[in-house]
Amino acid sequence: MSAVGKLGATLTLIGIIAVGANPGLLSNAASAIDRFMGSSSLGCGDDAVVSDIKSLARDHKGPAENSLYGKALGSSEIHKEDVVHPGAGWLRPDLDRQLRAAEDACRRRSGSYDYGATCSNLRGTKTPDQLKQPSDAMNRLSASDVQYWYANFWPVYQRIEAEEERATSEYDKKLGEFDKRVSYGVAVIRLQRRDESTGKISCAAKLTINAPSGTWSKEIKYSVEPTTDGDAYIQLYGLAD
């Protein structure tokens, strides 16, 4: 993955593009600090460079993008409560029981197979808008069927939506507090190669994440290259496993 942003005190994320040949690559296209312009003295450990490496790690939190963050979050015991809307393959047991009870009561209204199919259709209808969508199943619904759905199924689906919103809000709050306590360190910085013709340097270092759930480190590589228009590009490799 590749991220593009400003190099300096403020990092502005502009976009993310796929880099097929380097799946672990993050790049930072950045406006150069004055001393970078036309200079071949870029340093792997320059404060601005190290700051941007940390920013790239901090701004890419998906486990597929950042294995260190994935390990820290996975060890934090912060999980989103499973509610899961029907149709996704699972529903919290207490909510599932309410839907089953509404469907069973619907079937007891009539013992015919056809009416059982109608009850299944009613259970599969999750919003009032779906009741209005033209289809053979919906056209067969009577006024009493619609009334039954509003009285028995709709309250459960409203609760499911409310529970999902609550679970998401609680998870986001916990995740936000976790992220505030996450920091990165870059150490054991080494110059691997310098291209005198372009000023590009290749570097290696140890990237460390410090989180409430623990500390993890991994080896990374990155390159810094000044451009003729006064920009500099930072490419970070190895953030993802």
Give a verbal description of the structure.
- Mean pLDDT is about 80; it is low at about 1-25 and about 30-40.
- The chain has helices at about 45-60, 65-75, 95-110, 115-125, 130, 135-140, 145-180, and strands at about 1-5, 15, 25-30, 185-195, 200-210, 215-225, 230-235.
- Helix 3 runs antiparallel to helix 4 (about 115-125) and helix 3 (about 95-110) packs antiparallel against helix 7 (about 145-180).
- The chain contains 7 helices and 7 strands.
- A 5-stranded antiparallel β-sheet has the order 3-7-6-5-4. The protein has a two-stranded antiparallel sheet with strand order 1-2.
- Helices cover about 40% and strands about 25% of the residues.
- With about 240 residues, the chain is an alpha+beta fold.
- The two termini are about 10 Å apart.
Task: Quickly list its features.
single chain, five-stranded antiparallel β-sheet
Spell out the helices and strands N to C. EEEHHHHHHHEEEE
How many beta-strand elements? 7
Low-confidence stretches: 1-24, 28-40
Strand content range:
15-25%
Gyration radius over CA? 27 Å
